[in-house]
Amino acid sequence: MGQRLLVLGVKDRATDPDYPAWVSPSVQHVQLPQPASAAVSVPTNQLASLDLNESSTEENESTSTLGSSASTSDHEDDLAAPDSGVYLHDRLAPSQAMALHLRLHLTTGAFPSPVPPPVIPHLIVLMGDPSLACIGKLNDTWNAEDLATREKLYDVLRPLWNETKGQLHIFERHSKLLAELGAIAADPHLRENVFVFNLCDEGFRNDALQELHVPALLELLQLLYSGAGPLSLGFCYDKGLVNSTARALGVPTPRESYYLGNSLAAHVPPTELGAAALDWHVRADGVTYPAFVKPMRGDNSLGITVRSLVHDAAELHAYVCDLFHQHLGDVIVQEYLSGPEFSVGVIGNPDSGLHFLPVLQVDYSAIEQRHLVPILGFESKWDPTSPYWNDIQFLRAKLPDSVLRLVFARCAVLFERLGCRDYARFDFRADAPLPTWCTATRAPAGAAAVEGDQPVEKYLNAAEAEALAGRIKLLEVNPNPGWCWDGKLAHMARIEGKSYADLVMMILHVGWDRVRRQAPPAAPFVDEIDP
After folding, report:
1. What does the DSSP 8-state code read for residue 244?
2. Residue 68's Cα: distance from chain center in Å?
3. What is the pLDDT, as a whole number, of residue 4?
4. pLDDT at site 13
5. Are 390 and 489 in contact, with CB atoms under 8 Å apart?
6. Whether residues 368 and 429 fall in one domain
7. How far apart are CA 412 and CA 5, in angstroms?
8. What is the pLDDT of residue 82?
9. Does residue 524 sit within a domain?
């Protein structure tokens, strides 16, 4: 079962003049905002304290299992408050570098199964345009797998919202998009009762640089929509900005160096810089070989291939030059993280609760048996003929609860600080192999794999948990992660006992609940829009 985490007041009390007055340093009880309809209701009657400071064995044992209804004796009176809804406590995370005042709670309350559809009068599904080329996909075009993935999504939505009655609209042709959205925005009644399921992660006209332009357009038209806003998408598109922000928040990141081949301020093409100078630049920032090279900005693993792993200055220089010729001249050179890779899926919003799906570990065992580089890159996303597409599996992570608590807290801080909304995915990787007792392995041939096995329960004191969690470093933040039926979020949901349809409904629920709690949209200036 996934966990539900509420984060309130994730701010610096000392420096933020807008720190909310309702957040006091004492233990509080806060009632969750009521959803727009009964269909969105999430039970929160079973509560558990998320103690990030596990200072004693006794305290750890009482809260060792995430989602347990047990509590420490110090908080028995607090938990006994009638219908309190949420338990908050005033603790700092063990990592003092985080420098944040965190209030966290966990409950066993989760979405029901099956998840009923939210009461959305008119649903618009906004997709990439299959009639246009799409740079980054295999052969820069839409393939049979891409179109089949769409149909699986439509198969979920069409039985619930009737297209012929105007309850469901699918917008795929971007040449018509301004006119179609403008017509909806011009109708006050329709505008207030429509919700845009924004799945256009390819960007406007399939231009990844214009992914943020889609929600920006929706905001200009005052249309309610799912997922991250334009600021969040723009920020997270730049991996250098994300990593710098994460480090400032105390989230472990790889050692890295930046090479700005496209910089107009100090433009030195890699072909002129030379291998020795580039090597000196990288080593000066503490990055040694093997190193990992990837574009500083981008999406869909563009520029992340088996050549990204470099073992010396010559390989580094050759690949940076190659990326430069692909107009990907700004790159990050990081320490190569050789340990297990994890993905954390989050559904929700900080003001109403964050639901953490079961954590995945990427199983590279079949790839390593082929003596291939164990990475998730372009080949694993877009090439059905590649062993990276066929041989990589996802297992439930076996990290102990005390480490998961720290990872969840860091994800929650990043979720809030980067402006994520409704759902997100955070990818991490350990800097070296972890102990076998906390590393998931594939079931032997002929044995049935049990995706729902619970994580390992092993006692670690606070220092041990912090040390282990400190080795698990941030790879990437995905504010609008893949929604595909066979993607990571779908795997996480399946481990939790949810179907693909359940996953889609969960995302729609939290998005619709969020926008219904906001002020009603003002009328847009649609009379000034000339489609």
Report:
1. H
2. 25
3. 44
4. 37
5. no
6. yes
7. 8
8. 30
9. yes
Which pair of tokens denotes residue 265? 């301020």
Distance CA 245, CA 259 (A): 18
Evaluate whether 295 touches 323 at the Cβ level (below 8 Å).
yes
The secondary structure of 161-212, three-state, reads: CCCCCCCEEEECCHHHHHHHHHHHHCCHHHHHCEEEEECCCCCHHHCHHHCC
- 246 domain residue, yes or no: no
312: tokens are 């010396």
Scan for tokens 């520029």, then name that residue: 303
Here the tokens at position 283 are 């080593």
Domain, as residue range, for 290: 255-335
Distances (CA, A) of 297 to 234, 266, 282, 303, 376: 10, 18, 18, 10, 17
Rg (CA), the chain: 23
Q: Is 223 contained in some domain?
A: yes
The whole-number pLDDT of residue 392 equals: 86
- Closest to 440 in 3D by CA, of 400, 468, 496: 400
pTM of the model: 0.78
Q: Within 13 Å and on the Cβ side, how many CA atoms surround 192?
A: 9
Distance CA 207, CA 255 (A): 31
Distance of CA 418 to the CA centre of its chain: 11
Q: Please choose, from the candidates 219, 225, 243, 234, the residue with its C-alpha nearest in 3D space to the C-alpha of residue 124.
A: 225
Together in a domain, 389 and 307: no
Boundary (domain end) residue, out of 107, 137, 154? 107
Which 3-state string (H, E, C) describes 271-290?
A: HHHCHHHHHHHHHHCCCCCC
Question: Are 187 and 92 contained in the same domain?
Answer: no
What's the chain's average pLDDT?
A: 77
Any idea what DSSP says for residue 98? G
Q: 466: burial class by Cβ within 10 Å (0-12, 13-18, 19+)?
A: middle
Q: How far apart (Å, rounded) are the C-alpha atoms in residues 229 and 421?
A: 8
pLDDT per residue as tens digits for the range 8-27: 333 333 444 433 332 233 32
For 269-340, strand residue ranges (E) read 291-295, 309-310, 330-335
Q: Which helix (H) or strand (E) holds 413?
A: helix 401-417
